[in-house]
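Exam review. A common question shows you a sequence with its structure tokens and asks you to describe the fold in words. Practice with the pair below. Do the first one on your own.
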Amino acid sequence: MVKNDKWHIQEVCPSKNLIDFTGDELLAKLLTSRGISTAEQAKVFLNPLEGKISEANVFTDIDKAVERIKKAVKGSEHILIWGDFDADGVTSTALLFKTFTAIGANFSHFIPEREAHGHGLNSKVLMNLVSKQKVKVVITVDCGVSNTKEVSLLKGLGVDTIITDHHKAPEDLPEAYAILNPRAENSLKQDLSVAEIKSLSDLAGAGVAHKFATSLLKEFKIKNNELKNELLALATIGTISDVVPLLGENRTIVTKGLKCINDGALKGVSELFKSCSRGENISSTDIAFVLSPRINAVGRLSKADEAFNLLTSDNTGKISISIEHLNNNNKIRQSLCDEIFNSALLMTTKEITKEKAIVLFNPDWHIGIIGIVASRLVETYNKPVFLGTTDAEGTGRVSVRGVNGYNIYEILKENETLFAGYGGHTLAGGFSFDIKAHPFDEVKSAILSTFNELPESKTGNLLEIDAEINANDLNKGLLETLAKLEPFGQMNSSPIFCIRDAVLASYNFIGKENSHLKYICQKDGRELTCVWWGKSSFDIPKGTMLDIAFSPRLNAFNGMETIQLVTCDIASEHLANETVNKTESSRIKFYDHRHKTDILPQINGYLSDPKINLRVIALKSVTIEALKPFPSIFERIGLEEKCDALMFFDYPPTKEELDYILIKSDANKVHLMPEAFNDDFEYYIKKLSGMLKFVANKKEGVLDLPKAVQELSLSENFVAMAIDLFEKTGCIRLIEKNRIAYLKPVAFEELIQSAECEKLTDEFEKIMNLKGQILLSNDFESLFNPVSAVSC
């Protein structure tokens, strides 16, 4: 058993009452760890389909809001639905779009663009729309509660604003006609219980919009069950996407809404999942990891219109176009995430990683992506990350992601005088700032100073593990128990278990770019099939004993069902010993790009920042020529002095030369790029023969041996042995030490039959074995760990 201070195995003691009610001690433990301690609470939690979704009359202003819409519909007044560009905002907009269509309203909708308009109401756009469309009522969804100035502007124009929102409200609320926001003061009726208020306060924007919509349908006497199912399905997507707690009323909304989705309530959603080969039994996890990222991707990168069309259209042709658009944007989003992530990694020097937080800025980063990348960097470094860029107007914008031990909101509050605006909570936040008034270096210095003033404490995110189990516990019965806890989401995540001392039997990489790890372990006579998504490197020897933290899943493939352990983390003595035996300064961090194509434009973009201290290893002329169109890469070729990072486009032919480069550079990061190399012995013999013919005819026979070695990317020993063999077989004649006469082409068949050729082929195989290991193996530590202090 490995001591692991990054895992916390929960120790819960369920009551006898709860164990008796469930008839399953493990289920009782899992319920207890989720704050459920009584049989009555368990009954409600385990039967979400029987739960009730509260009426909209929980809101103080609901009658007022409904009456205003009735007046508008009756008088054909133009109503504007103002949405938001994330998945919660888009589903909320779609939800009211369907509702207002059903009640026969004169209306339009507007979803702002992230970069052009920002979050919430935008005065310039509002003025234009109100003027052109003669708008009399504006309804906000998933925004508006902080837009005091904009609502006042609308009021001055004779426009009534109905706010539907769920975000934390300011003390001074906007002068809206009606506010439906469970987190705004006096928005909920006074006779509600504490539990009801808590449950309503957890609603997503789509959950609030759903209450308004159902209240309108009731008032207008619309009895359309198909429409009601569609609205519930939209509320479900918004609720899951916005990562609000899936407890209380949200749990009921999502459970009932998932049933509607699986019954085909939203045609576009059904078609999208079919296109992803996930057309059946769509779960909350599928919504969170397949649908939500696609909706958010278009909102982050362009306009959310195609996501809106997917959710509202019944036209097969339009749906197909929307799906293609969403999938393409999602691929671009993934590519941008990788690009910015790698760019940020290149910027994290030794000095930066020594700080309590990582604070980075690049004006070229995409504003819609930096939050996602900040989360990835938190996983990498287990410390708070601040990533900054500029928006379309040149304002500095920063996304923040934190770890346990620091309160991000309080840290931002401490520096609020530097910000144009800010917000957040304990583990995440964001702010904007005027770059001219407060340059980024000033902002960065202030943030790091705040961290340094905080008392030393143990920080970092712990992996919460529900229970330690045995290999024999992995059966369908366990999966059936876990299914009772669904739907999974925030505050009710899929349970994580651990198994101790499993023996690693084999592993390989899967996926289009070998970006996922699949490995097999043996434990108590059972074979455990494990997968680790996004794990593209692994250097643990077979036979090593592992502790595995995982969530079990049923995997169906080729008609066979197996239980797959979806890995969250592993621990082993091998890793623990590595940590003890290596100092921080001697550790090299590896970035594997060996299987990536068309990556040079991205790399060129990363290296445009002169602060990045990286050198490029490119040896062959063909490689150097290929890098010429990329000036930021090309100008870094060569190793003149020490640097933070190395990027290998060609790999040295010997371990000694590799060690020399690593020691001379003192780099703590190594980027592994693909190298096009030929392992055909005859190819190199003929190429060297051609080089000798060229120098004999064009260079007066003078051979530049180091240049020939570099061009072939072979060892000096190999080239010298080959030249010696060429002379013995009468192909060349040595006139002087580095001057030759070319006599005849190499007869390859004759050459390989000579006794001396065996030593040459041995040397060649040694070189190719090293190159093959570098390009195919994932044991980077042993390959790139200098074995001795080579003289520089």
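Now try the second one, then compare your answer with the model answer below.
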Amino acid sequence: MILEMKVPSPGESITEVEIAAWLVQDGDYVEKDQAIAEVDSDKATLELPAEMSGVITLKAEEGDAVAVGAVVCLIDTSAVRPEGDAPAKVAKATPEAAPAVASAPVKETPAAAASYATGSASPAAKKILAEKGMLASEIVGTGKDGRVTKEDAVKAVPSMGTNSNGGTRGTTRSKLSMLRRKVAERLVSAKNETAMLTTFNEVDMGSIFALRKQYKEAFTEKHGVGLGFMSFFTKAVIRALELYPAVNSMIDEKEMVTYDFCDISIAVSGPKGLMVPVIRNAENLSFRGVESEVKRLAIRARDGEITVDEMTGGTFTITNGGVFGSMLSTPIINPPQSAILGMHNIVERPVVKNGEIVVAPIMYVALSYDHRIIDGKESVGFLVAVKEALEDPTTFLMDGDQKKALEL
């Protein structure tokens, strides 16, 4: 029996995927549920499992864009599993050698003779080449007798300059994955279609440093996850969203949609690039709950197991460029959300406290927001509320009881 394997739908609104990589070769014997391919959608990279055991015949190449529901491979379920670990190969019939046929002698075509037009260019082409700082003699024309056409001039790439130092000057081209192309489209869309503005502040992380130093080991020993910064930032963001609900809103045509729950997206770096999984109803989670969910989602993203559903939605995003050493940045809104908070590296800096200069661990934070629905009052107030909670987490995030909040 020949089974046709079709591309399943990775999620709502996705109509096409791209074959990122085949994990098996044409003619291999595959087991049921074995991962046979990685496919890129515009939201995630997913594994395609074999629906049945048998010998596989590939019907698409790596890099092909394939419609959802299209046949990508065939599985011969009647094939016998090979002995040992060696994969089975389909025995393909070898056609009998065709009788030799005397071929007619090939007449060599002489190279085109140079003429008055060789190396010359049309007036339009000359103008384009002049703008690029190029000469017609540098280009092989495709027009009659080697004439450089306007199309040749448009396609011409200027030289990167001569190199007298003897080094190589090669270039490499690689196709962007469907996920990367979609991310690019969304980022450009966010810049072009929102009234994006960024406001900044600084946070003294001394209190959080002290809390982590005091309870980090006990927290890890009891809960099996570390006490990181993300739980403090997530809890501080949730508190600020409750104080300023406009930041937890989105624009839907002529309406403003405000959410009474907090689905917090966290930007993480995966093998396929930036991914933004979502912590659902983060307002109901404890410090332990947030840290456990962050760890779970980060591992799934790193291992390429994250699903479209786990990255769909989100009402607010937190991104941490500090893990890569960023001091300050202006994060781009993750549409259709209306705001994103950027964390950065923590550096000991001189600050004034009670009239004296002291050294403190300072983090710069940035809030990018859509000014169409979030005014300066809300944006600045939101960021100040985040700062307030992070600088005094015991009061604002733990109800005055550190051990109870950390479930110790």
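Model answer, second protein: The two ends are 59 Å apart (CA to CA). The domain at 2-76 is CATH 2.40.50.100 (OB fold (Dihydrolipoamide Acetyltransferase, E2P)). Full marks require stating both points clearly.
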